[in-house]
Amino acid sequence: MKNKVIIPIIVAAFVTIALLIGIAIGKNTATIQVVSDENYDYSRYSGTGNSFGKINAILTLLDQAYVDTIDINNLTDDILPDIMHNLDPHSAYIPASEVEESHEDLEGSFSGIGVQFNIQNDTVMVVDVIAGGPSEKLGIRPGDRIIEVEDSVFTGSEMTNNKVLKTLRGKKGTVVNIKVRRAGVAKPLSFAIKRDDIPVNSIDIYYMLTPTIGYMKISRFGANTYNEFLTGLTDMKKQGAKEFIIDLRYNGGGYLSAVIQMVNEFLDRGDLIVYTEGLHYPRQDVFADGTGRFKGYNVCVLINEFSASASEIFSGAIQDLDKGIIVGRRSFGKGLVQQQIPLTDGSEIRLTTARYHTPSGRCIQKPYKQGKIDDYEKDIVERYDRGEFFASDSITLADSLEFHTRLGRVVYGGGGIMPDYFVAQDTTVYNQLYKDLSLGTHLYGFSFQYADRNRASLSKIKDWKAMQKHIAASNYMSEFQKYLAEKKVEYKQDDFEACRKPIENLIQAYIARTILGDNGFYPIYNQTDETIKKALEVMK
Q1: What distance in Å separates the CA atoms of residue 506 and residue 513, rounded to the nearest whole number?
Q2: Going by C-beta distance under 8 Å and a sequence separation of 6 or more, which residues neighbour residue 349?
Q3: Which of 65, 89, 218, 333 is the most exposed place for a label (fewest CB within 10 A)?
């Protein structure tokens, strides 16, 4: 069986290495000319009779006999994504130029100048400065506008987030020269910033929701997530937490090692966390080791349709082992195991080798058909159209997909994790006007401008409760409606009044984020969160 595990990986690597050898040959023989079919022997490119030889033969033939000069390297990079895409939804080929970027969000750090930014009116605005980072050390402040980089104008309609990231990030120790415009300062300020390692935090916030219930929002499972997780739980325990709400909504997954360490904190020795199995990949079980510091603590996990992969492993283990409850909506259903296979030119293949299963035996992966990946990617839209976001009875569950938790509770397979308590999207309060404003730029744009105008007074406030009270006492909502009029946004007043409360909440949260970061945003924003309200209700 061990040979079967190794062979597909070796073959995959060998195929690509063969392609790369073909590329190297091509660079030395790209000027071959053919006078006529009679004078040129194509038979030597007929391959060895198997698909691997055929692919290499075709690429070599194109390189040596095609009518025009072609770049085999680029051609290979174009072909391989299509090959991998047609296998399953998550196998992928990553060109060498994109490998580093694809790792950054999970690795725990990247090299840059240490600012959070937003583009407002074609200008890069510094929203926050990373504590201890190179920008903070030089005195760059939230509210500064970056107007020049390396003596070149850095504003305009062509400005994008991607352009800003590529310009400001770079190799550790290199210097980038910028100019910023600061409110109240007549001339632009110049800074020579030496790039340094910037931490990538995967836990957005943790704080006490009630005197005994701690809340933590986790955005990804990266290299540092377990340490952040343990620090947060320990801190909330000291503050009196007896139970925890772990928010995994919109968490698309990450490192398996991180989620195993994290869920292990709540489990007993010998508890099965997850197992993987594939055609060429024998079953492998992962068990808790009994060293968890939070065994016996009740856990409530929040999920939605964008919780995937590692998020589903965490929530599936908690549910199947009856260590807590799951609240929200059915998760995404991404349960395929990818092996990262580095290739000789610096590119990578992420090859699906197995499927994840929860302790009760449920396969996390939702169904798909090879070659029908576009249909798979439309699944979320189809769920919405079926009404699954609004009513739990819109989900049809077959008896054949019935499984049982350790204590005998019925849970269902078929892809994703079904919550114990369903929370629908509220279409009465969160109407179309609210969707248009929240998904567009107007709510955030106004909030940033308001915070920027009042930065001097708001910056004196260090607590989110005091911040919310200060904002609520102002005339910010009338200012917002004037802002919408200036932007020529048309709406019916009845629609506005229907969604006034969530609009007020989001503006207050955005203003607080501009001054206090996520520590100001989430405690305010969560006050109107129906899923958190349901979690608190069922935990009581």
Answers
A1: 10
A2: 12, 13, 16, 80, 84, 91, 92, 93, 94, 340, 341, 343
A3: 65
- Beta pairing partners, 403: 411
Strands 348-357 and 421-422: unpaired
280 neighbors 8 (Cβ within 8 angstroms): yes
In order of 32, 65, 73, 85, 384, the CA distances from 19 in angstroms are 19, 17, 9, 18, 43
What pTM was estimated for this model as a whole?
0.80
Cα 354-356-362 angle, rounded to 5 deg? 130
Integer Cα distance of 410 and 153 in angstroms: 62
Q: Output the CA–CA distances (angstroms, integers) from residue 396 to 180, 319, 387, 499, in the order listed.
A: 56, 20, 12, 32
| Residue reference for tokens 């904190």 | 265
* CB contact burial 106-125 (16+ within 10 A = b; e otherwise): bebbbbbbbbebbebeebbb
Digit-coded pLDDT (tens) for 427-475: 767 788 988 888 778 898 899 899 989 998 999 999 999 999 999 999 9
The runs of H, that is alpha helices, within 390-529 are 432-439, 442-453, 455-458, 464-472, 476-486, 493-498, 500-516, 518-525
Cβ atoms < 10 Å from Cβ of 169: 16
> For 81-103, how does the pLDDT look when each residue is reduced to its tens digit (9 = 90+)?
888 888 888 888 888 888 877 77
Owner of token pair 């999970």: 106
